[in-house]
What does this fold into?
Amino acid sequence: MRFIKLAIIVFMSGLFFFSVLRGGDRTFAQENSAQEKNALDVAGFGLSLPERVGADDGALFAIQFLGDLHGSLDNCGCKGRPAGGFGKRVSYQKAFKEKLPAMPVLMVDSGEFLNDDRSTHGELKGDARIKNDWVLKAYDKFPVEAANVSAADVAYISQLIAEDSGKSNLPPILQRTISANIVKASDGRPAFKPFVIRTIGRGKPVKVAIVGLSELSTRPPAGLKIVDPLEAARLVVPEAARAAEVVVVLAHVKSDVAARIAAEVPGISALIVGNGELFTPSIRLKDTLIAFTPSEGRMMGELRFYAGSKISVKDRFISLDGQVPDDPEGYELVVGQREARKVAYDRFSKPPTGDGTKLTIPAGYAGSQNCSKCHVGQYVKWANSDHALSSNPLATRQTELESSCFVCHAGVVHSDAMSREKPLGNVGCEICHGPGAAHVAAPDKSYGRIGDAESSCARCHTAKTSPKFNFSSYLAQVKH
Ligand code: HEC
Ligand code: HEC
Ligand code: HEC
Ligand code: HEC
It folds into this structure.
């Protein structure tokens, strides 16, 4: 079974490579056929942890890599066969240090370690925030030496930096995030360290530069720009090569971009690529080993570097399948993240008022229906406007529903907030005119004046939620 799987992987990788060739430069083919075949080394199912670590083959040092975790410390959630997850990863790392204490090792992340799930209006979901905070915590507790910032990662990182506003309470891992092509829009200067240098290796340690590259993005956070990764590599790799003996590039880019970087930028020993593909065996192009990050952390990638007239590198992959035990310390973080998400989910899913089971009208309010008795004309107009149905769009967005949505979509009157079937509240008369119970009891002319109508709309119709908002044309639609 295992053999068949491997055969499929090898076959698929042939297909993959063929597609790269067709898309790109023909010289890749000539280049590669001259290279010796790179045998796939997967330490997997049926082996004990120390067996997966393998023997001390005299390597100078090792670099372990993961990526594309999308904010999850958890395993893949695969039924009956939970693979990956922070517990198993820590188990392997500890087994490695115990069995090969003489072989120094660095852990890196090829990018997309954070979650960037957004709601309709482009806000980061509350759940994403919680996931991310736990990943950052985990990356400090079991240090990741360099984390490549992808286009998705940069959004949350810059939000954290903006919220911190110079108070320096940021998680230390942010000092070890790298990118050579995410720059400030104002002056084009790097927004992160383009690379970090670590001195590592038994006997005679060498300097290793780890460079970060991200894919382009159509909507980088305000004030930032992502420039072409290939162009950035051309500039930064020679600089890194002057400062270090070994250059390793972490690149969150599509495979064809990775192939171009390896073919066109000399001086890279290993290019560790993350792009969410299930599993692609490594490729050698010219002097560069291109190693792909297995998806969802189900396998750990490991590069071993060997001394010689020129430092050489070999890749291997370690399956983090169900047979790998969860390290208790690592697993604590998995459980912590799970529980924090559950607590938050309960909080987000509660309507802001009431118990969520019946229509709740807060004290001082009468409810729109009550106004209809005396203001029929206004009521009929309102009842046929989108404001009367303002919670309808939420029904189609159950997965992103949070209590914060109700502030604008359901006003102050709520019914069973999380139910698809029952009607929710809406932007009722009193949202704009103010609590009306007293006015209903004793009507008088002084009630309900709206001083500045435009700013009363603006609390809900913001640039984010209502980009096409125009006061006079919008008012004309709801005038009553
Ligand atoms: C029992 C009848 C009655 C009910 C119920 C009632 N109103 Fe009135 N409302 C009046 C009367 C009467 C006036 C004063 C009209 C006048 O003197 O021109 C008024 C005035 C107003 C005004 C000010 C209009 C202006 O000319 O400036 C607003 C706004 C208003 N009502 C909104 C509401 C809202 C919202 C509700 C429901 C919460 C409501 N009313 C319920 C009878 C009622
Ligand atoms: C700050 C106020 C505000 C908040 C908070 C808010 N919305 Fe909205 N939403 C609006 C407004 C205003 C519109 C109408 C925009 C327009 O038509 O110009 C709208 C429109 C929508 C629409 C229909 C238009 C579309 O883009 O498909 C959906 C769906 C929606 N919102 C979902 C949500 C969800 C889900 C949440 C919570 C995660 C949420 N909204 C939170 C104000 C808000
Ligand atoms: C989105 C906000 C909004 C909602 C919801 C809303 N109104 Fe108004 N209403 C206004 C504005 C704005 C005006 C006109 C400007 C002003 O009066 O300052 C107005 C004017 C009125 C007037 C005075 C009309 C006149 O001839 O001067 C009445 C009465 C009124 N609304 C009743 C209602 C009732 C009843 C409902 C619910 C059925 C309702 N409104 C819902 C914003 C709203
Ligand atoms: C409490 C929040 C809130 C306030 C205040 C508010 N709106 Fe809205 N408005 C909404 C939401 C939510 C929607 C989207 C409803 C839907 O898509 O079903 C909406 C939709 C609309 C629409 C329909 C837009 C479309 O493209 O169909 C118009 C027009 C509108 N609002 C005008 C106004 C005006 C004018 C004001 C101020 C006088 C105002 N609104 C105040 C929440 C609000």
Q: What stands out?
A: Residues 2-344 form a domain with the Purple Acid Phosphatase; chain A, domain 2 fold (CATH 3.60.21.10). The chain is about 35% helix and 15% strand. The chain has two domains: 2-344, 354-478.
